[in-house]
Amino acid sequence: MEPTTTETGTDDAGPPSRRAHGSGRTVLVLTALASLVVGGIIGGVIGWQVQKNRVEDDIANIRPIGTITAVSEDAFTVELRTSSGSREFTLSDATVIETAESGTAADLTEGATVLVRSGRSDEGDLQAAEVIVLPSPTPSGG
Q1: Which SS3 state, helix, strand or coil, does residue 79 take?
Q2: pLDDT for residue 142
Q3: What is the spatial distance between Cα 67 and Cα 102, in angstroms, rounded to a whole number?
Q4: Which residues form the domain of 50?
């Protein structure tokens, strides 16, 4: 009598066929590799976006240098030298204002050149944390 083959890949005379078992492993390995590639791509895109946002925040809060164009009791506007446009900064009790000596808000006058370290208030306004009033340039004599 001859051995007969069944649908499961076995015959009456021997163990299961290795061919059917091996193709299942191949599919599992390929699925795992595809998952790693897709996960790596997604992780890279997310990491890139996080880093991009961090750099944008750093650039937005870089110490702008410029000339004061307007002053009020609790804010001042600076015409930027490093880029076009101007920015308005609010003042708080925690704002440190420096000159060659200790300064006050009275030192913030139109035409003064300032260096500003800022952050964002809870409302999203640019808030001056530290203002350095630079000395006025003196005309060079000859």
Answers
A1: strand
A2: 41
A3: 20
A4: 15-60
